[in-house]
Every structure is written in C-alpha cells, then in structure tokens.
C-alpha cells in the first residue's frame, strides 16, 4: 500500500506536462551531483550495489550496478513505482525509500526519512560544492 503522501505526490506529477525540456522545473528540491556507493535492500532478497549520482533533500537517482549484464538482471531493475526499498551506506542507518521510476539502470527514489536523518541529509547537502546549472533551452 502506497502512503498517502506518496499518492498525493504521484497525483501532482500526473497532472503536469513536460514541455520543451521543463521537466526539471517540477522538482521540489535542487539536485546535486554526487558519488556515493550504496546498497539497495529488500526483505528476502540479496542486497544489490549501486551508486548515488544525483541527490536532493527529497530523493536520489541511483545507478544500479550490473543492470546491463545478461539475464538475470539485478532485482532493482524489476521494481515498480511505489515499491519500498532500504538504502544503506548514505546515512548511519538504513533509509526507507519509495521507487519513483526505473529506466536504463537508473533507479529514482523518494526518501521517507525521520526528522533526525532528514537533518543529517540537509547538513550533507550543505557541505557539497555549490554548482550553478544552466536551464535547458
């Protein structure tokens, strides 16, 4: 069962249109280029390795290691929108995440963090080098 806050988030995205490359405008928080090695975990499945390459205070984009190998592909490539997973290696404790999308070996997740972990994430992002990104034309 998808939490109500995630259902509202999904409903908000369903009503938007991505016109002329303006998809980034709908994001709730700025993205930061990073490189963190992490593990994706789900009950009953072997942990899968990945690399966080885009991070915000609300979520992350994770490159799934081994996604392009012959069958069988890693289980994270078969996740669906709304599935819950655990992310370890980014924080001191495992972080609950909800799958937003899986495309071409990239897993996009929305964090479901407690207040203490969210504060740690905000501090982590504050220490990242600030980058200015040009808007697409």
Topology:
Elements: H1 4-14, E1 32-41, E2 48-55, E3 59-64, E4 84-88, E5 95-103, E6 106-112, H2 115-127
Antiparallel strand pairs: 1-2, 1-4, 2-3, 3-6, 4-5, 5-6
Structure class: alpha+beta
Largest sheet: 6 strands, antiparallel, barrel
Rg: 15 Å
Low-confidence stretches: 14-25
Helix content: 10-25%
- Count the E strands: 6
Number of helical segments with 4 or more residues: 2
Order of helices and strands: HEEEEEEH
Distance between the termini: 39 Å
What's the arrangement of strands in the largest beta sheet? Answer: 1-2-3-6-5-4
Average residue pLDDT: 80
What's the shape? globular
Q: Beta-sheet strand percentage?
A: 25-35%
Describe this entry's structure for a reader.
It is globular, with a radius of gyration of 15 Å. A six-stranded antiparallel β-barrel has the order 1-2-3-6-5-4. The chain contains two helices and six strands, in the order αββββββα. The N and C termini lie far apart (39 Å). The protein has helices at residues 4-14, 115-127; strands at 32-41, 48-55, 59-64, 84-88, 95-103, 106-112. The chain has 137 residues and is α+β, with helices and mostly antiparallel strands. The longest helix is centred in the C-terminal third of the chain and has 13 residues, at 115-127.
């Amino acid at each position: 069962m998808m939490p109500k806050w995630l259902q509202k988030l999904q409903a908000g995205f369903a009503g938007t249109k991505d016109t002329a490359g303006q998809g980034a405008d709908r994001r709730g928080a700025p993205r930061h280029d990073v490189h963190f090695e992490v593990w994706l975990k789900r009950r009953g499945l072997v942990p899968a390795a990945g690399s966080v390459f885009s991070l915000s205070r609300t979520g992350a984009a994770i490159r799934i290691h081994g996604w392009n190998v012959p069958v069988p592909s890693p289980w994270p490539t078969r996740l669906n929108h709304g599935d819950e997973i655990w992310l370890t290696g980014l924080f001191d404790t495992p972080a609950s995440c909800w799958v937003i999308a899986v495309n071409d070996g990239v897993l996009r997740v929305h964090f479901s963090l407690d207040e203490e972990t969210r504060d740690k994430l905000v501090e982590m992002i504050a220490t990242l080098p600030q980058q200015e990104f040009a808007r697409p034309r």
